[in-house]
Amino acid sequence: MSGILFLEQTLNGLQFGLMLFLLAAGLTLVFGIMDMINLAHGSLYMIGAYLMASFVAATGSFWLALPLALAATAVVGVALEMSVLRRLYERDHLAQVLATFAIILIANEAVRIVWGPQPILLNAPAGLTGPVELPGGVQYASYRLAIIGVGTAVAVLLYVLVTRTRVGMLVRAGASNREMAIAMGVNIRRLFTAVFALGAALCALAGAMLGPILAVQVGMGENILILAFVVIVIGGIGSIRGAFVGALLVGLVDTMGRALLPIGFAQIFPPQVASNLGPSLSSIMIYVLMAAVLVFRPQGLFPARG
Amino acid sequence: MKTAISLLAFAIAFPLAMQALDQPFYIGFGARVLIYAMAAASLNLVLGYGGMVSFGHAAFFGAGAYIVGILAVEGTRSAWIAWPLAVAVAALAALVIGAMSLRTRGVYFIMITLAFAQMLYYIFVSLKAYGGDDGLSLPGRSTVGLGLELRNDLTWYYVVLALLAATLYLLHRLVHSRFGRVIEAIRENETRAAAIGYPVYGYKLACFVISGAIAGLAGALIANQSSYVSPSLLHWIQSGTLMIMVILGGVGRFWGGPIGAAALLALEETLSGSALLGDYALHWQLPVGAILLAIVLFAPQGIVGFFARRRHA
Amino acid sequence: MLEIRGLSKRFGGVVATDDVTLEVARDEVHALIGPNGAGKTTIVAQLSGSLSPDAGEIIFLGANLTHAPQHVRVRAGLARSYQITSIFKRFTVLDNLALAVQARTGSSLSFWRPVATEQALFDAARAIAADIGLGERVDVIAGTLAHGEQRALEVGLALATRPKLVLLDEPMAGMGPEESQRMIELIGRTRSRVAVLLVEHDMDAVFRLADRISVLVNGRLITTGTPAEVRANAEVRRAYLGDEGAARD
């Protein structure tokens, strides 16, 4: 098994993991502070990608469109929170699951109505379309490196925000013990709307950046949403650190599993078996990982609660 | 009792009426409604009565369907073999998945049932020999002997109706039995149920398995319905659809599952073919989503609950 | 009949239960008292099975139940009531009690026969309801009962399992004087049939009902004795009244 392939897949895993982190961070905070399951989080990711594509078409510039897409998605997120999601905080998980599932249906169709049913094109910015040579002579897509760069920068920013600023402290307090935070005078509603807006922007960033690599199509939110949930269950609900570690773990396991397991299987099993077993096993790797984590650490790796 | 009789009478008369009106398409549609009524009722047992929010119920539904599909393609088309086997496999899957999932609580339970269902989905997608992503076409409906040709839509409808009626009767006895009481008690207050001496885990698991088994039977029937199975039957969106049916009908109410299934499928049928929506008919999922949202926010007791309250007022 | 030997439990740096040894005899009402935060409920939780001790043993009627699951303890005859009311709010009083009776009579893996036909179950439930003073309220939805009535049902549920020893965790919590009276009488009525480990703050009840009293301070048992002995104990007075109280003697 070549070292180049291994390096490539590791970087891919890192890239995917960092983007997953953007989604998981917002999701885990929503869950941690408001104890709310939000299935529509994936829809914000999708809307972010679609808005990005439109802004790129309108402005002609990737980097100009990006902040616009983030802002617009944040607005959509806040509107959603204030109109519908607020009413769900006091409800049980089943109600939240169903209501946000309904939002997925509505969002999917709304996107289909506005943008049409076909996947739309989102291109990487000019200047990042070619490969870059890494130490060791390996060629790697410069855009993917850019994603790793952006993802890492945002992760660092989030870390600083959550651990070093007052707002961050309020967020952590809310995630760890909501009643206590309220009792101590934190305006949990406003804090929450702010957190939600941030989460929506992060979703949009992930959607915008992954758009050129994955397809921008209706239903893209659902596929990645389930991964994001696996991430926060593994990482521990309410914990940014957990979301980060969980996301990298899931990104790496999923990417490398898909690339390397079939090869590994082909070495051991006859081709007939390997071609069936390989892909199916690699798809389920992250779920096996999640089940394993839950067996040993039922609260996740870094539980924020308690 | 009265509800049961009127619904049964309606169900018996329905296909005959459709035949008289020269709308044979709706006989097939009716059978589909009955099958989903069974699937929704099975989910209502574990969700409404048991309080277990299982987001992976489609796994048992789809597994049952695939057993029938795979057996049919491999040459075994007898319903007497394929259908019980579908139920058994679904029950086994529920036993394994339930045994692991029920050790968790709250959102973790929801997520882990979802994850297991996705695992099964990917496993079936990867079965290239049995259609993979594109699904599997069956050579035709199962054979039952007894002089019945399931190929005939009318016959098929009544066979499905008979099975649904039998299943609902069994479910009715179940929820009013000792077992049913314990399950509801566990839903109401699990800690106290344990504190008065019930081995809670065992009861939840039994409920989960029974529910999965019934879903497997519904799956066997759905495979026959269009002589086609697709991995999308196991997708979590399918689980979500089943949950919509249950809450639409009234979660925890006996008729919630069947009524919800009928309502949702009827809604889907009217909206997607509607002249009202015109060009937008393609986007029927949007009003469905809106209605579901409205129900969750404003009428969480569902259709049955709504009418129950009216009667008491 | 109940022996607790060297029971210990810590949560991180906090020692909630510190090497506690005590026993409850047959036909005894044994009260467990102590200032707030002494760890009384933690002990009850370990006895009932919702918490697992770090060290020590719980022997009930000769059987080692230290790590046994909750339902096993109940079957053995060890039941508990909760400090924060934990009943089946949407069921009627009758159904609440019937559930407890059902647990001890025959198997509930019965899927066919309607429970409504089991007269014996409901007769037993009615008897218990009468016993706890809710005889006239059997068809009321439990969640709509007055606080005192809910507490009575709370205790009733534990008693319905026909325990040999019942752990009552602050049964009088949140009750006014009249309701407390009724609860004291209820406990008085049951003492001939069942041993009681009573955790309470209400000193009136404790001194009227208890055969022996154990005092818990900061997780540690400082003394066990008759009410008179405990009342006179200097260490107990210091724990409750502070140093000046003890010094005054």
Query: What's the end-to-end separation of chain C, in Å?
Result: 37 Å
Number of strands of chain A: 2
Write the H/E string of chain C, N to C: EEEHEEHEHHHEHEHEEHHH
* Mean pLDDT over the full residue set of chain C: 87
Tell me the greatest interface: A-B, 41 and 44 residues
Quaternary structure classification = heterotrimer
Strand order of the largest sheet of chain C: 6-7-8-3-9-10
Short description:
The complex is a heterotrimer of chains A (306), B (313) and C (249). Chain A is mainly α.
Which helices and strands, and how do they pair?
The complex is a heterotrimer of chains A (306), B (313) and C (249).
Chain A: H1 3-34, H2 41-59, H3 62-83, H4 93-115, E1 131-134, E2 138-141, H5 142-164, H6 166-176, H7 178-183, H8 188-210, H9 220-235, H10 240-268, H11 271-296
Antiparallel strand pairs in A: 1-2
Chain B: H1 2-20, H2 25-49, H3 58-73, H4 79-101, H5 106-125, E1 136-137, H6 153-175, H7 178-188, H8 190-195, H9 200-225, E2 228-229, H10 236-249, H11 256-273, H12 285-298, H13 302-312
Helix pairs in contact in B: 1-2, 1-6, 2-6, 2-9, 2-10, 2-11, 3-4, 3-5, 3-9, 4-9, 7-9, 10-11, 10-13
Chain C: E1 2-11, E2 14-24, E3 29-33, H1 40-48, E4 55-60, E5 63-64, H2 70-76, E6 78-81, H3 93-104, H4 119-131, H5 147-160, E7 165-169, H6 177-190, E8 195-199, H7 203-209, E9 212-217, E10 220-225, H8 227-232, H9 234-241, H10 243-247
Helix pairs in contact in C: 3-4, 3-5, 4-5
Task: Describe what this molecule looks like in 3D.
The complex is a heterotrimer of chains A (306), B (313) and C (249). By secondary structure, chain A is mainly alpha-helical. Chain A has a single domain, classed as ABC transporter involved in vitamin B12 uptake, BtuC, CATH 1.10.3470. Helix content of chain A is 75%, strand content 3%. Chain A has helices at 3-34, 41-59, 62-83, 93-115, 142-164, 166-176, 178-183, 188-210, 220-235, 240-268, 271-296, and strands at 131-134, 138-141. Chain A has a two-stranded antiparallel ribbon. In chain A, helix 2 (41-59) crosses helix 8, helix 3 runs antiparallel to helix 8 (188-210) and helix 9 (220-235) crosses helix 11 (271-296). Chain A is globular and about 60 Å long. Chain A starts with a helix and ends in a 10-residue tail after the last helix. In chain A, 50% of the residues are buried. Chain B contains 13 helices and 2 strands. Chain B has a two-stranded antiparallel sheet. Chain B is mostly helical and 313 residues long. Chain B has one domain (2-312): ABC transporter involved in vitamin B12 uptake, BtuC (Orthogonal Bundle), CATH 1.10.3470. Chain C has 249 residues and is α/β, with parallel strands linked by helices. Chain C has a single domain, classed as Rossmann fold, CATH 3.40.50. Chain C is 38% helix and 24% strand. Chain C contains 10 helices and 10 strands. Chain C has helices at residues 40-48, 70-76, 93-104, 119-131, 147-160, 177-190, 203-209, 227-232, 234-241, 243-247; strands at residues 2-11, 14-24, 29-33, 55-60, 63-64, 78-81, 165-169, 195-199, 212-217, 220-225. Chain C has a 6-stranded mixed sheet with strand order 6-7-8-3-9-10, sandwiched between helices. In chain C, strand 4 (55-60) and strand 5 form a beta hairpin. In chain C, helix 4 packs across helix 5 (147-160). The chains are: A mainly alpha (306), B mainly alpha (313), C alpha/beta (249). The A-B interface holds A 31, 37, 84, 87, 91, 93-95, 97-99, 101-106, 108-110, 112-113, 222, 226, 229-230, 233, 237, 275-277, 279-280, 283-284, 287-288, 290-291, 294, 298 and B 47, 53, 55, 100, 103-104, 106-108, 110-112, 114-116, 118-119, 122-123, 125-129, 236-237, 240, 243-244, 247, 251, 280, 282-283, 285-286, 288-290, 292-293, 296-297, 300.
